[in-house]
Amino acid sequence: MKAAVLGAGYMGSAITFPLTHRGIAVNLWGTWLDDDMLSSCRRGKHPRLQKPLPAGVRLLPSSELQEAVDGVQAVFIAVSSIGFIPVFSKLLGCGGIKEAEIYVLTKGIVEYQGKPERISRAAAAMFEKKFGQQPLWVSVGGPVKAMELAHGIPTLSIYGQNSKAVPDISRFRTPYYRIRSTYDGVGVELCSAFKNVYALLLGICDGLYGQQDRLYHNFSALLFSQAAAELKEILSCSGADPETVYTAAGIGDLYVTAQSGRNRRYGELVGRGMQPHKAYQKMMRDQEIAEGYPGLKLGLRYVKKLCIERRLPLLGSLYTIIVEAGNPEKILTRFASGL
Amino acid sequence: MKAAVLGAGYMGSAITFPLTHRGIAVNLWGTWLDDDMLSSCRRGKHPRLQKPLPAGVRLLPSSELQEAVDGVQAVFIAVSSIGFIPVFSKLLGCGGIKEAEIYVLTKGIVEYQGKPERISRAAAAMFEKKFGQQPLWVSVGGPVKAMELAHGIPTLSIYGQNSKAVPDISRFRTPYYRIRSTYDGVGVELCSAFKNVYALLLGICDGLYGQQDRLYHNFSALLFSQAAAELKEILSCSGADPETVYTAAGIGDLYVTAQSGRNRRYGELVGRGMQPHKAYQKMMRDQEIAEGYPGLKLGLRYVKKLCIERRLPLLGSLYTIIVEAGNPEKILTRFASGL
Fold first, then answer.
1. Arithmetic mean of pLDDT, A119-127
2. Helical pair B313-322 and B185-209, crossing angle rounded to 10 deg
């Protein structure tokens, strides 16, 4: 079997490990932002993952997308959410894509025709316009930190299919990369998108209280359970199966994102008193993108489109903290005392 | 209003803070194990909570249970699970108890007439035998670390009522002690009992990998979501509402117990290589009781009584690690690779 991975950042590079483990021939294509990354990989280590990519992975620069997807059965898309629409649009211009299986690791809500939209919905519209049919689509989620996947840490991923036509995903399973599947692809992608946003809150709580052994675990557990309840509301109102929140795709991913990673770190900076936009810029300078920050703005527009923002008071509190630069401690304490 | 709190350890003492905050007159009764604790409180600080109890809390030694409950409307029981049956039995011998509201903060499965049983079920049988009716019973759960409650950290507790006759629990609510109620008392008590057990696993995972910045968050998130799924199975097969797992009583409490506290610390010791029974004894010497350790044995007997142990593979793995002293890393890795 032959597969292309689009995007040579953390997740795209990490997924090449289980794929090659299973004997799949992998073309790793870098976007126009990834050229430096590919050069580093050619010289030795992947600069983010801090280890060489598996032997045999073919590296292809942004100019060679057609070459990258030529004759592949599966395309894994792992570009950033901002890059998704332009990359997918280019992909549709390539030959042989109509029948390919498409696995999407990109997380988030995208802007499509001026409106906030789920990635799979925007992509399906684009695909249908081009080919007059739906793509063979799988939204990939679950608690998967790329760095850990690349280092063979036991990991569970959830593959959300959009139809029964997608072939058996057990072809990608390894002893350390476990996969469960569901037909609730919409639920999986919404969990992936919004857990990044809610994880900011757990980071903020840690930043506010987690120094000098201050006590705050009751508070952060309260936020965690409210985040799960609001995720459920978002899925419910989007036609997804609300139960998906309670699988590894939802609470599992929220848990891991609250424990470690860029969104949590971003929240911590804000909790410690840094202005939200400055914290984002500081991380950008360190080449760390906290996707929850732009994700929050798009996410709020998405829930407003569904007219459910009033049912999501914690999301509203987060918006006040991050976008309106409100005082985190006051706002979160007020939120808790209103429960 | 007048209330008695039975048990002067962490949780019993902590609950006196919101109660007195609401102007309730509180008698704090210590068991025969708490006499030293009460003496310390009289001299100044509560030795566990590291602060004085609220002014006006009346301290009563184990010999004065009748005095403690005389004329009270509500009895809060916060003794250890091992102490529950003997204390409840004594309580039933006191005058004026038949009409009292009973709030139970004790967590765990108890041994009743030689069998593992839910606390509320054992107590209901004892109460009915004595008075020919059911008690006004509320199982109290949710992510509540006693130390944090005593220090006014925003906290959400879940009160699971067994009938509509129990009066309004908003009488106990303060700005920092929030309460939600449910009629699924059985779900609340089972979550409280089993989350202590499953939290051992998150501690073990931390102990195994959490040193020297090793990567393991994917793995612990996988365990967290599996623990939630198994809790749901246990509730389902006990006639409780499985959805209760997904509230603060379930995932919220599992979250806080995984982050901090004695059960997590116990798990960490085992993860770092200490023999399970030695780790328990070490903590006992430091006057720290990890209730998840005896809770695991009783818990496994409870699920065997329901004949569902095969549907709980993670609980089985934990049993192999703790009771049969199996190698934690091997057993957990094998568990993950079987998903």
1. 98
2. 60
